[in-house]
Task: structure prediction
Amino acid sequence: MHCAILSGMIELGGGDDRRQRLRRLDDCLTLLEQAHELELTVVTDAMAAAISARVPSVRAGMLIADAIEEVLREQEPYMVQVRPEVSRRIRRRRDPFDVRLLLQRR
Result:
């Protein structure tokens, strides 16, 4: 009943672009999270049909929590890697914070 509404959110169309793929995976994650909020505990046939094209390891009957983990695992390669700055200035912490310090920098 709710699954028909939720599965309509996932567009199974193409798009090889990295950003497009990540969006489709995010749609899968949203579907699963909303199902979880509706107190569903297992992936239904309709949900599996909508998601498995993007995340083949998601199957009907598996726990929604496990399916969410599978989608997150699929998203990992598409996530932006944050590189540490090469030259990063270390700020000294001053306690307590004094707004006058900011005003002096003008």
Q: What stands out?
A: The chain is about 50% helix and 0% strand. Residues 18-37 form the longest helix (20 residues). The two ends are 61 Å apart (CA to CA).
